[in-house]
Amino acid sequence: MSNQSSPRPIIDHIVILVSYDSLFETPKRLENALTVIHGGEHADGLTVNKLVILPDGTYLEFIAFNKGIDPDRRRSHRWGSLEEGRIIDWAYTLPDESDFSQVQQRVREGGAGVTYRDPVAGGRVRPDQTVLKWAVASAKDAAGNPVWPGDAPFWCLDRTPRHLRVPYQEGSELLEHTKHASNAQGVSKVEVRVSEKDFSTLKPVYEAIHKVGQAAETTEDGWSFDVHSGATKGSHRLSLSVLGNKDAKSEIRLTFLGTDQSPKTIELLPGLIVDFESI
């Protein structure tokens, strides 16, 4: 492997699964906290989404399965059998898809049997007929089975300019939909909580993903990520810990960067709380 350091991972988006009816109530429900915009329907016709785009270029994706779809088709989807009303997954990205081969190699060499599949093409056409293209790559365990969504990040790698997929600024000016009543500025922390057994499997994966040069950038509170805007305010930390609730499979918690005008928390959905920190 080359001694050249690969880029630090960039947090791309957080996925929240909701019911179809709840999805269309989201803009009104969150109007006093977050600005929610229309996303679109994905090319497979299974899912539709709405987005909260933050000033740092990160976004929340509220996603729902369309009504009336075949139950078997839904179950075959990566998120089709997951519980609604919670954060179910999250994605990293990189400056260029060509950087991903280094991540694959590091995880293959140090990831305790976990590996990342090659990127699979995806895309959609915006209402204005702009074509968006990307590729996604997810993790599999030593037996070749998919790693549980959210336990390890999937990768969303743009093949058309990212600003077409995630419009958050024009030139140096932030777009109006990135302004939020809660003064949310971006994603500051992501906490992934897993079982004790899964923790021992996943920690080497995270160390490999975040390796800088010849050393893993591990500290007691986890690893650093970048944001697309290049902003440096905020903790920008990813942590992995053991879940206290032994009945749960895993849990993902989110902390926003805010201002001194931000609330301490907001409730995205009943029982789904996001914390704020102000730096």
Automatic annotation (TrEMBL):
- Pfam annotation, one family: Glyoxalase_3
- Every copy of the Glyoxalase-like domain together lies at 11-198
Entry's Gene3D superfamilies?
Answer: 2,3-Dihydroxybiphenyl 1,2-Dioxygenase, domain 1 (3.10.180.10)
Q: How is this protein named in the record?
A: Glyoxalase-like domain-containing protein
Q: Which organism is it from?
A: Cylindrodendrum hubeiense
Identify the taxonomic lineage of the organism of origin: Eukaryota, Fungi, Dikarya, Ascomycota, Pezizomycotina
